[in-house]
Structure formats: C-alpha cells, structure tokens
Specification:
Layout: E1 3-6, E2 16-19, E3 31-40, H1 43-49, E4 66-74, E5 88-92, E6 101-105, E7 109-111, H2 118-122, H3 125-138, E8 146-149, H4 155-166, E9 171-176, H5 179-187, E10 192-195, H6 201-208, E11 214-219, H7 226-232, E12 233-241, H8 258-261, E13 265-268, H9 276-289, H10 291-296, E14 303-308, H11 312-320, E15 327-331
Helix pairs in contact: 3-4, 3-9, 6-7
Domain Enoyl reductase (ER): 11-330
Keywords: NADP, Oxidoreductase
Protein name: Enoyl reductase (ER) domain-containing protein
Length: 333
Amino acid sequence: MRAVDIRGETGPASALFINSETAVPKPTHNQALVRIKAFGLNRMDLLQREGKYPVPSGAPNTMGVEFSGIIDSFGSCSSTLGFHVGDEVFGLAYGGAYAEYIAVSTSMLIHKPKQLSWEQAAGVPETWITAIQALYLVGEYQAGQSVLWHAGASGVSIAGIQLSKAAEASAVYVTASSQAKIQFCKSIGATEGFSYKEGNWADALLSHTGGKGVDLIVDFVGADYFEKNLKAAARDGHIVNLGFLGGTVVKGDVDISPFLGKRLRLEGSSLRSRDEGYQKKLRDLLVEHALPRLVDGRFKIFIEKVFDMEEIQKAHEVLESNQTMGKLICRVH
C-alpha cells in the first residue's frame, strides 16, 4: 500500500514522501482493517516527524491517529461489536493513519453518519475526544463553571468552546494570537478572548472577570503560561496541561503561592499514551455528548483546508505556520 514515510526516519516537512512499498497491516483478533478515505493532521504529528514525540509501544511507525474509511476485513475475533465489512466508519488509533489502510481496534470505531463527509469525519476523533477528556474526565467540569481554552483557534479548542457552551458554562474564554482568531472563537460561542500579542492576557482576563479569574483552564502552552495560569485561575481552580508549545522550563523567579492561596490544582494529561479501555470510555463520551450535535449541525466541524495525501509536505508546512483556524485534512484516493 501507499503510506507517508520520512526519509532518514526523522526530519523537516521536506523529508516526507509517499512510500508505495509499505506492507498492508494485518488486523489482530480484536481489530478491523479499514481502507482509509481521509485522515486528520495534528500537532503531535509535527513532533513525531521530528523525533520529539514518545510513540506508544507497539504503535506503527507511520504517523496519524484519526481517520475515516470503510471496513475491509476483521481479525480472528468472533465479536466485531456490531460492525460489518463495508461499514463506513471513523475512529482513533495509536498511529498508522497516514496510509491507504489501517488496523485498529473495533472498540475505537464509530459508525460514520451519512450527514458527515469523509473529510469532516476524519477531523473529529483526536480533537473532540481530547477536548472531552480535558473538560470532563481530567478537568471534572461542573455546569456553571467558567472555562478558558488556550490556543483558541486550534482544533481541540474549537471543539472545547462548543462543548463548554453546550454544557452550560457560565463563560467561555480563549487566548489567541490575533483579533481575527478571537472573533472567530466568539462566533462559535466564546464569551471573550485575549490576544497574547497585545499585552498580558492574564491581567486582561482578571480585569474582565472583576478579579475572580476562571474555574478551569485548558493549556497547551506550558512553561510560558505557567505563572499567568496561576494568576488567571479562580479560587479552587483547575489547570489542565495538555502540551508544551511554549517550552518545558519555567524561567525566572515565579511566585507559586497561588497554589495554596487559591487552592489550585495543576494536572497534566495525555491521550495517546492511555490504554484502550480508557480511550474506549472517551469514545463512548464522544458518541454521547458530541455525535448527535455533530449530526444535526449544532456542533460545527471547521476544516481549514483539504489536501491530497501526495501533498503531505505542504500540509505539514501549513500546520507549522500556526495560521490555521480549523482542521487540516488529507484525502486518500
């Protein structure tokens, strides 16, 4: 089969190429072999391409964790969890989605509604499941709390804004690099946004909330936002860290007294390193909390651009530009 590979195993976007001699994966007893129609791009893919992402044990070398496609066959397990050969599905995997075929656990598949295109369905699993995990399982969100989503125009935060609003958050805040991105976030449900390029966003948020701060912060930035997150969090606030776009080393003298003064919690989490049982629980939450609204249009899937798989170098370059407001998707012909 054809699959995206990396010359030299790691490297820049220009090192990506289509390897037409990749072996088709063989599904194990609880897996399905899916012929991929489209796959989504995520920032972890950039890190993996550069050799900076810890790939889970047993995951294929091929990048990509979210996809849509058609079931081609099954492994040896007699129970296929209600799926059949020829079913249109989308799902989450530990890797291998940048290809024509993928072997994936049937417990991580979802029947593709006819209302969603292949491209839309491929943009759902990683982003929406990550947002659901941050909000409900890790963040322990309760109705009426306020939520701040950093990187507001990213795929995860776009899902998170909509999920928070639907779950009756008292306010949904974002940070972003530009007023255009902030206005986009407000158009899909954000209450207010703060540009990190136009002053101290934490001071602006505290001013906007009359000094109260925000109950739940979902952060992808890390070190650069550590002190500001402590400042912006409300009493008994919860900070959920999902990434380190701003580095891992906090520099300078940082006052950590808010941990005690505000009774704060800072909790790190990841998705790809979780076991299959945990991921299935999130898959079920996606079906419960998001799928009906995705089908009837109350939740929107925003796709910035669709590429052909052969344009993977360009797709990675666009993702690296940090200018997107929505998902980047690749079609497999």
